[in-house]
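Progress report, Aim 2. The chain analyzed during this reporting quarter is listed below.
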Amino acid sequence: MSGPFSFSLMATDCAARRGEFVTPHGRVQTPAFMPVGTQGTVKGLSPDDVRGTGTEIVLGNTYHLMLRPGAERVAALGGLHKFMNWSLPILTDSGGFQVMSLSELRKVDERAVTFRSHLDGTMIELTPERAIEIQVLLGADIAMQLDECLRLPASRQGIDRAMQLSLRWAERSKRAFEIKARKGHALFGIIQGGDDPTLRSQSARALTDMDFQGYAIGGLAVGEPQEVMLRIVAETTPMLPAERPRYLMGVGTPHDLIEAVARGIDMFDCVLPTRNGRHGMAFTRYGAINLANARHANDPRPLDAESPHPTARTYSRAYLHHLIKANEILGAVLLSTINLAYYQTLMAGIRTAIVARRFAAFREYIMEGWELGDLPAL
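Predicted structure tokens for the chain:
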């Protein structure tokens, strides 16, 4: 155990930031990448596997865990940390994105979002207060307010309505958190406003006035081009207090991460490392490598002989190709591990570069490696 939530900004290099936050379950170095443990597990990997990649915090999903096995059951079994055998920090999202993406039948009004469970069709009402209660029962070190997330493109009227509703839900979430939360845990507000800079500004100003322990930029990576996402990030981060962490939700590719750090983001989560790993895709300093491609069938080289993670150095491309083509579980496990390790190595390199005030050079070096691409087969 560490202590109550706090954030320290340790170094900057232009807009890029190097920091650390403290939670009841440990310290997290930023910029940080959080693997997604949707249903109490980072899919296919044991907690020891995840820790072995350098991961210091994982994300749990309120929507999925409230449906199965249920927040009250997890609480009765000692909380999510004990339930999944993860002793380090956990952030839980509020469930708003999953309601949007998984429930075909849903109704949003002032009180709550009502939706049909994708598991058994049961109609469920999720209020801001219930979303906070679930996250407190799970024992999350960092909880998120309930918000309404829209897919882009959307009408300005629709984006404005969702943003204003999310602000009112933020106030209710904060009041509920102050009543129910365990001492030392944190609640983040979520900035909405779609691709409209004026609405984003309104949301950011209102949320900072509410004084959350951290601020997330939500409603991006939901259909808009990357350049739009990065523009919104660049316009939003200067409005946020420097002494609080900034979290870009649901992002993204290695290129997304390094570009968002350059625009002042501290925290990320995304399913890509493990999802792509399960489908035969490896992330490396040479870019993405599709191990299902036949050209790897006779390649004895490891993915990266200089990787700090042994899994990337140990197994040949030919063997990984074989596992993927044979649909063996081990292939998904190894590539998910390799991908998470690459993401964490990338974040560690970013942190070191910011402290040395060499982030621009590091960014250029990484970009050149990806543009060079995979080395030719022997």
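The first helix runs from residue 47 to 52. The two ends are 50 Å apart (CA to CA). These observations will guide the mutagenesis work planned for the next reporting period.
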